[in-house]
Design brief:
Shape of chain A: rod-shaped
Mean pLDDT of chain A: 85
Strand content of chain B: 15-25%
Radius of gyration of chain A: 62 Å
Largest sheet of chain A: 6 strands, mixed
Helix content of chain A: 40-55%
Strand order of the largest sheet of chain B: 7-6-8-9-10-12-13
Structural class of chain B: alpha/beta
Distance between the termini of chain B: 96 Å
Largest sheet of chain B: 7 strands, mixed
Number of helices of chain B: 13
Mean pLDDT of chain B: 91
Structural class of chain A: alpha+beta
Order of helices and strands of chain B: HEHEHEHEEHEHEHEHHEHEHEEHHE
Radius of gyration of chain B: 26 Å
Distance between the termini of chain A: 22 Å
Low-confidence stretches of chain A: 1-14, 699-706
Oligomer: heterodimer
Number of strands of chain B: 13
């Protein structure tokens, strides 16, 4: 069987893939792609972040504008009410204003005090919410900017600068002209508006969880803040860039410039936007910690960087995988070409087909042997009936078994070797080995038919066997005649011989006997190789055959002072199906070898024992000279004789074990040898206990014959 | 590149991502994080009944702002005692009980609070309400910066008392003598009263009283005559005797001017001064800032935001005086019971 393994990567190999991978252009392309990826990602992140920041700025400006609108609306309302009072009571004497002003102050607690100024600038009265005003407390407003401006009649009202009370509360003076119904200027009504009401207005506007809206006057003094303590402390924020920009006349600060960020007293970096109220000179600002205001853009930025980092990693990971893939592809491509070259140049023919019986490969040698064309066969099914109809494929189909051309039939599960003779395109004998190619899943992915042309070898073997057969037959007859002649002479039937003559003749007789045995062995070998050894299977008692074989050699053993002991099986063995003569031949060959290769005084033990329920094992163990380890692999080939045996001058043909192995195999058994030089040898062989285990037909080509 | 390098690269990328995530969380606003604050324990020193509106305003404002009693805040309330010694013992016990903020009302409890905290717990924030002239009393260094652990809201009675007298005199022009029994000359603005009363055409009869018993003793022995009026002094001793003063005024048919709306609600003829409930609201606002981490000295003392004129016409009928229409029009509240 053939198993697939990891492809061998030929590092020295050069292919266009490798050239491409290692080229500078490839790496320039990769680096360029990386920078493009990074650039595009950064652009999108930057765009998203700036968009979010712009939206935050717009939102904050909207809040700021809304706060500014509320302030101006509130002041307009105060002005409207105060102005209405003036118009309503403009025709009465200024001294009557006091009661009306007191009532007005009750309804408008934002005003801390009110004064009425006469046309000449004298303060006629002053109503203070908390303090008594005595006559000596009244003052003269001649030269006062508000008074003079209103007296000139250029504007309908006047808003003075912000001032701060003793308690630190911001106030502003609102002045209105008092006129008669005819429009005559009668004086000025001047009210101190406490700006505390704006603190609550600012507190009602929510800017995130930590932001706020505050108001500064034209000098940067804080005049409204949700935290009244800051106002009462007299904070001035002119050091804040956003406040400074607005005080200097900027209409608005959108927060996106450098003036939009500053660190407050608590050390928190704030994002500030602001708008200026031109009519008052005040500025309204919205501030929120940068971490809060830009949480969205921070999250986008964080997510973008995370994605960019991971993308870069994945990009490089992808490049590495791509590189490895290309290298692998290159290796596979090289291996494919390499394999194709090997297959094409093999001296054996190869046909590969898949489990679906479709032909995958026919190499050039197979094309030559079978006279077919791969381009025609590739992809076709072995079961394609058109193949059988064409004489061109007769040879091809001859090497394909019936199972392989029959859809649904089981295909070979293990290596099988057969010899097949074909007559098209010419007479050939092919040794065909069918091998399943086992894949990673342990299943056959394809099947190989490996064909070897053994026509010449078969012919030579046949010639050789015929020669041996003829030679043996031709030798056997004169040898038999010689044997009987010498036997008659030794028996004294033709007269008495001297002892010396008798000794010499006896040696000639023994030499002739050995020659006859050799010829018999050669004849057996020839018959085996020609497949006409002629087996006759029948039920026999193995023990009796062993005993008979041992008895036949008992004299020889006795002459060499070797003890042969048979140890019968402890378990009862039924009669086995075997060829008695052939089995006796096997046993005599093995026992005779043991006797010859054991020094005098040695011993031979023959043991028979069951091997499971299916087989019987026979062991012939001697205490002989043993077999050199390097000789063991070719022990069962013809004429195999160990060096130590030859050195000792022990005679033998070297055919006994060859014959024994062929006979044992024909019985469905196995034979093997264990040996250690100078310690002895044990020959094992098995025989089946069941007739069904005996092969129906013997191997056409005897094992070891080639 | 082997698997080890890949793993190192992946771990590196993951660490960078985790670092950026950590930075993002660190930059996240505090509002995103769960608050695990313990309840704030607030000690309260009541001065009933006249100053209870400041307590009601304080508690209601905190409730409106989402502070749940028992969960977010825990009040431990005591009342001023019959005398300073008793009040001192109770207040010291309260201050040492582990409270986080002390809220005091009136110029009786607040000086004691300063004295005890500066000796035993100088870091304990003290918020005061209804304490006039806190600078003159030595409670704070200035209105903008107390330079200690106190801040609060002042009704400004050291100034407003004279204004009250002016309105009282305008409302009842027949008034010729004004009886003013004071416990604390500073919080009552005694000097200013003495200076301005003659300009208003009234004679100020002032008398110092040590405690509530002295108030009763003084007024029970005083011989009233037509044209007399009582100007209730804005101090804790007189605040505690408001019911006595109202009964006395009705019995003697003497006009009584209180310091705030509560006095009129219980029977005084009129009052002009800070709305004590609003004072409590302002004090609660300061307490919230302290709970947010502000130090009292960074919170300037605030002047009361709302002043009101309150008239009780039922009392006017009882004592036999007539209130002019123009005064009723100017009143923020007119009570007829």
């Amino acid at each position: 069987m053939i198993s697939r393994t990891t492809p061998y990567i030929l590092r020295q190999a050069r292919s266009h893939f490798q050239v491409w991978i290692s080229s500078r252009l490839f790496w320039i392309a990769i680096v360029s792609a990386f920078f493009v990826l990074t650039g595009v990602s950064s652009f999108f992140i930057y765009t998203a972040v700036t968009t979010v920041e712009r939206d935050v700025s717009i939102l904050h400006l909207a809040i700021t504008q809304r706060a500014a609108s509320r302030i101006t609306s509130a002041l307009s309302e105060v002005r409207r009410i105060a102005g209405h009072m003036v118009k309503e009571h403009g025709f009465i004497a200024p001294s009557e204003y006091e009661h009306h002003v007191a009532l007005f102050m009750k309804d408008n607690p934002e005003f801390s005090h009110f004064s009425l100024i006469s046309t000449d600038g004298k303060e006629v009265f002053r109503i203070d919410r908390l303090a008594i005003v005595r006559a000596e407390d009244l003052t003269n407003y001649r030269g006062n900017e508000g008074f003079e401006t209103l007296k000139r009649g250029s504007i309908p009202f006047y808003v003075g600068p912000v001032s701060f009370s003793d308690q630190g509360e911001p106030e502003v003076v609102l002045s209105f002209p008092v006129k008669s119904l005819q429009g005559e200027f009668l004086g000025v009504l001047m009210g101190n508006l406490n700006l505390k009401f704006m603190w609550n207005l600012m507190g009602e506007i929510t800017v995130g969880s930590r932001g706020k809206v505050y108001v500064v006057d034209d000098k940067g003094n804080l005049i409204a803040d949700p935290d009244s303590s800051l106002v009462l402390r007299g904070e001035n924020y002119l050091h804040r860039p956003a406040v400074l920009a607005l005080v200097r006349g900027e209409a608005r600060v959108d927060g996106l410039g450098p003036e939009g960020t500053y660190v407050n007293d608590a050390g928190v970096t704030m994002f500030g936007t602001g708008v200026r109220i031109p009519s008052l000179g005040w500025s309204v600002l919205t501030e929120e910690p940068v971490a809060d205001a830009f949480i969205g853009s921070r999250r986008i930025l964080a997510a973008g960087i995370v994605l960019l980092v991971l993308s870069a990693f994945l990009f490089f990971f992808f490049i590495i995988l791509l590189r490895q893939l290309l290298q692998l592809t290159k290796s596979l491509e090289y291996e494919r070409v390499h394999s194709e070259a090997i297959v094409s140049n093999l001296t054996d023919g190869i046909i590969e087909y898949g489990p679906s019986r479709r032909v995958l490969l026919v190499n050039p040698e197979a094309e030559r042997l079978l006279g077919v064309d791969q381009s025609v066969l590739k992809g076709r099914s072995l079961a394609d009936p058109s193949l059988a109809r064409s004489p061109t494929y007769a040879g091809f189909l001859a090497v394909i078994s019936d199972a392989e051309t029959s859809p649904g039939a089981a295909l070979a599960e293990k290596k099988v070797t057969t010899e097949i003779a074909i007559d098209k395109p010419r007479d050939l004998v092919l040794q065909v080995t069918t091998v399943p190619v086992i894949g990673f899943g342990g299943k056959a992915e394809s099947y190989l038919k490996i064909m070897r042309d053994v026509t010449r070898e078969k012919f030579l073997n046949k010639v050789k066997s015929e020669f041996i057969n003829i030679a043996a037959h031709q030798l056997r007859t004169p040898l038999s005649g010689l044997k009987w002649t010498m036997r008659i002479m030794l028996d004294g039937d033709v007269g008495e011989m001297s002892a010396e003559q008798k000794r010499l003749l006896a040696r000639g007789y023994e030499a002739n006997e050995r020659m006859i045995r050799l010829v018999n062995d050669l004849l057996d070998v020839a018959r085996i190789e020609e497949g006409r050894f002629g087996y006759e299977f029948a039920k026999h008692d193995l023990g009796k055959i062993i005993q008979s074989s041992a008895d036949d050699l008992a004299l020889t053993a006795q002459e060499r002072r070797i003890t042969v002991t048979i140890h019968p099986s402890r378990a009862t063995l039924a009669e086995l199906t075997l060829d008695e003569k052939k089995m006796k031949l096997v046993l005599e060959n093995i026992i005779e070898n043991a006797i010859h290769y054991t020094l005098p005084g040695g011993r031979i033990d023959i043991t028979v024992s069951p091997l499971g329920e299916k087989y019987v094992e026979i062991q012939i163990k001697d205490t002989g000279i043993g077999i050199p380890k390097n000789h063991l692999p070719r022990l069962f080939t013809k004429f195999a004789r160990a060096d130590n045996v030859v050195r000792l001058g022990i005679e033998g043909s070297g055919l006994g074990l060859f014959i024994a192995r062929n006979v044992v195999h024909r019985h469905g058994g196995e034979i093997w040898v264990e040996s250690e030089e100078h310690r002895g040898t044990t020959v094992h062989f098995t025989l089946p206990r069941q007739e069904a285990l005996i092969p129906k037909v013997g191997p056409e080509n005897p094992v070891g014959a080639l | 590149m082997g698997y080890r390098s890949l793993i190192i690269g992946f771990v590196g990328a993951a660490l960078i991502a985790a670092g950026i995530f950590w930075w993002w969380r660190a930059e996240a606003p505090e509002a995103d994080r769960a608050a695990t604050d313990q309840p704030i324990r607030i000690g309260v020193v009541r001065n009933p009944p006249a100053l209870d509106p400041a307590w009601d305003g304080f508690r209601n404002r905190l409730k409106e702002d989402g502070y749940v009693e028992g969960k977010d805040i825990i009040f431990t309330v005591i009342e001023v005692g019959k005398d300073q010694a008793e009040t001192k013992v109770k207040m010291r016990e309260l201050i040492l009980s582990g409270i986080d903020i002390l809220y005091t009302m009136g110029n009786s409890a607040t000086p004691l609070a300063k004295e005890i905290t500066q000796r035993d717990r100088p870091d304990l924030p003290v918020i005061f309400g209804v304490v006039s002239d806190p600078v003159g009393l030595g409670l704070v260094a200035s209105l903008r910066d107390s330079e200690n652990n106190l801040t609060g809201v002042t009704p400004g009675n050291q100034t407003v008392t004279a204004k009250r007298l002016e309105i009282f005199r305008e409302m009842i022009p027949s008034l010729r003598r004004m009886i003013f029994a004071y416990n604390n000359p500073l919080s009552g603005g005694l000097d200013k009263l003495r200076e301005l009363a003659p300009t208003l055409g009234v004679t100020l009869i002032d008398h110092e009283v040590k405690d509530g018993a002295a108030v009763e003793e003084y007024f029970n022995s005083f011989e009233f005559r037509p044209g007399d009026g009582i100007l209730r002094s804005p101090d804790s001793v007189n605040a505690g005797k408001i019911n006595f003063l109202v009964s006395l005024a009705k019995e003697k048919k003497v006009p009584l001017a209180g310091t705030n709306g509560y006095d009129v609600e219980v029977g005084a003829l009129m009052s002009y001064g800070a709305d004590y409930e609003q004072v409590g609201v302002q004090a609660a606002r300061l307490a919230e800032r302290v709970m947010a981490g502000a130090k009292p000295r960074t919170l300037p003392v605030e002047l009361a935001e709302k002043y009101e004129l309150v008239i009780n016409t039922a009392t006017a009928r009882v004592i036999g005086v007539e209130i002019g229409r123009e005064h009723l029009e100017r009143a923020d509240r007119v009570i007829n019971q």
